[in-house]
Amino acid sequence: MEKMGEHFMCVERITKILLATILGIVMMLASTGSIKSAFLLQFGLIVMLLFSSFSGYCFIVQILKSAFPMCNKKDIK
After folding, report:
1. How many CA atoms lie within 13 Å of 17's alpha carbon, on the beta-carbon side?
2. d(CA 14, CA 75)
3. Rounded distance between C-alpha atoms, residue 10 and residue 31, angstroms
4. 24 backbone dihedrals φ, ψ, rounded to 5°
5. What is the number of alpha carbons within 13 Å of residue 50 lying toward its C-beta?
6. Residues in contact with 56: Cβ distance below 8 Å, sequence separation at least 6, in sequence order
7. Contact assessment for residue 64 and residue 15, using Cβ atoms and an 8 Å cutoff
8. What is the residue-wise DSSP string for 8-36?
9. Which structural domain range is residue 51 located in?
10. Out of 2, 40, 46, 52, which could bridge 58 as a Cys pair, Cβ 3.0 to 4.6 Å?
């Protein structure tokens, strides 16, 4: 459990939740027959992840940092 004063929702956790949500939406689109939409969303996600991996800059993290704290190193699992 979290100690009092530590943040439960932090940037890294929110980013992972958003990534899982987007992947779920892609699965839903693919299962309902919207293959083109699923492909475009998946392709955009791949491009965004590759860009952030090679450049070290993630647009979503920069936005979320203004509203949420960064996770402590010991909290990241």
Report:
1. 8
2. 13
3. 32
4. -65, -40
5. 6
6. none
7. yes
8. SS-HHHHHHHHHHHHHHHHHHHHHTT-HH
9. 11-72
10. 52
